[in-house]
Q: What sequence folds into this?
């Protein structure tokens, strides 16, 4: 053998040895992660999904698990949330509980879900609220701008998406006017959802005018090693002077946002509640908890943010329920399960993203089998194709037991609402999917009030009237390839 041949064989052997070492290292890492998945207190479908990913996606799966495999908040954020979870702004706790009401005294049926929400979230049901239901995006922003223009002490805004043009710019202008009057203005926006705003001229002008802007859950390459980077603050809250608040599904966007983002699905349709009364205080506390966590501002004079509600408020009992990673994960998931299992006559729900876990799906099926009328109103077209496919995979099981599924045709129905037995209402920022149940920071408002539930149900029936029904026999005739694609997407549902 020539010397050159010996050198070539040595080089080939070295390359083979390197490849073998890489393969062995990848196998060891994937096995170690698989053992960790089994040992963790993870839901079985999610654990199985990760094991499938680890088996069929070599090399990439360990990095994917590092990014989104565990709900790591980061050490500092976890400490702050734990401290706030124990304290809950202790100076206001006596005020909340002195004003709190036992829904049992008003409506016996509301007691179980109210007790669950109180024990899991730390916030009691609050009486004497006036609630205004709004479903027009431009009207919501115009009303919010009016409230900001009347502010005398502070304006607190927390949104997942802030549109830097159109309606979002109008709110920015209102905040700059407020800051010029000496009003303290704090804005907290999600670092991913509001990326365009954070890089915009509007952001710079607002900051220069004295509006303090902080990005929640910032994303950078180093953060992935210490915290899960896809945990997002999905809340939509505005609080003005501690007396008026807004919550629901609408971001700081108007109808033009949808046209530029995705023309095919049409305008996004949302539901927002304007609140005056005792329920403003829990919404204020949720904002301040998030603000302190991300801004690290001390806020020594906390009492100024919780003034006594004005007299002559309404009669609605409202229960504000925050949820998300931290000391009490899964709060909204437990509350929704209690709501579904407590239904006796009717469940009517609207949601854009429907990827339920097995307990949620079983609760819907159980309700239908008990004779409860169950109707789900979902968008006909969705901006996330894999989510839409995973959603469709659940249809047949639900249709078989009599659940009515309506596909909304008049835009992307982004409203996340529910009414139960025409007496319990829910307006929330949370979708019916795993991300909202366990990963995103969300806020929900349960309302124990027949009148408000009636108004919300009237709005829901409008959405039903703009929809077409999915029929079981037609659904079963779908092409085999579509069923295959949907069922494959469903496998990744626990990871969405």
A:
């Amino acid at each position: 053998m020539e010397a050159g041949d010996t050198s070539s064989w040595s080089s080939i052997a070295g390359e083979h040895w390197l490849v073998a070492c890489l393969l062995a290292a990848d196998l060891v890492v994937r096995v170690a992660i698989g053992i960790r998945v089994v040992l963790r207190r993870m839901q079985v479908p999610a654990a199985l999904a990760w094991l499938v990913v680890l088996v069929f996606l070599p090399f990439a799966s360990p990095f994917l698990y590092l990014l989104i495999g565990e709900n790591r908040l980061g050490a500092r954020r976890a400490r702050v949330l734990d401290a706030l979870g124990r304290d809950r702004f202790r100076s206001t706790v006596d005020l909340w509980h002195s004003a709190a009401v036992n829904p049992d005294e008003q409506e016996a049926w509301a007691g179980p879900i109210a007790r669950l929400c109180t024990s899991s979230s730390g916030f009691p049901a609050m009486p004497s609220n006036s609630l205004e239901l709004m479903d027009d995006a431009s009207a919501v922003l115009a009303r919010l701008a009016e409230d900001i223009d009347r502010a005398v002490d502070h304006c607190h805004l927390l949104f997942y998406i802030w549109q830097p043009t159109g309606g979002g710019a109008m709110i920015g202008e209102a905040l700059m006017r407020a800051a010029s009057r000496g009003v303290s203005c704090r804005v907290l926006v999600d670092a991913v959802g509001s990326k365009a705003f954070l890089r915009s001229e509007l952001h710079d002008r607002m900051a220069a005018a004295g509006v303090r802007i902080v990005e929640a859950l910032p994303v950078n390459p180093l953060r992935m090693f210490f915290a899960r980077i896809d945990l997002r603050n999905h809340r939509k809250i505005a609080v003005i002077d501690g007396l008026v608040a807004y919550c629901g599904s609408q971001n700081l966007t108007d109808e033009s946002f949808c046209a530029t983002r995705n023309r095919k699905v049409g305008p996004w349709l949302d539901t927002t509640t304007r609140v005056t009364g005792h329920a403003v205080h829990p919404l204020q506390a949720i904002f301040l908890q998030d603000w302190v966590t991300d801004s690290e501002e001390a806020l020594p004079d906390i009492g100024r943010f919780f003034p006594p509600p004005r007299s002559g408020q309404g009669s609605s009992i409202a229960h504000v329920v925050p949820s998300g990673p931290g000391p009490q994960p899964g709060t909204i998931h437990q509350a929704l399960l209690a709501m579904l299992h407590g239904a006796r006559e009717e469940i009517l729900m609207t949601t854009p993203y429907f990827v339920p876990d097995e307990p949620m799906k079983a609760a819907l099926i159980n309700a239908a089998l008990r004779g409860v009328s169950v109707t789900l109103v979902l968008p006909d077209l969705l901006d996330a194709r894999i989510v839409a496919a995973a959603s469709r995979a659940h249809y047949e099981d639900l249709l078989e037991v009599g659940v009515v599924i309506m596909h909304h045709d008049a835009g992307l129905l982004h409203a996340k609402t529910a009414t139960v037995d025409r007496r319990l209402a829910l307006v929330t920022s949370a979708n019916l999917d795993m991300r909202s149940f366990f990963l995103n920071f969300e806020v929900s408002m349960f309302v124990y009030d027949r009148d408000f539930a009636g108004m919300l149900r009237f709005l829901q029936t409008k959405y039903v009237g703009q929809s077409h029904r999915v029929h079981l026999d037609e659904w079963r005739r779908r092409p085999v390839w579509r069923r295959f694609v949907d069922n494959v997407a469903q496998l990744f549902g626990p990871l969405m």
Notes: Residues 3-39 form the longest helix (37 residues). The CA atoms of residues 120 and 331 lie 6 Å apart.
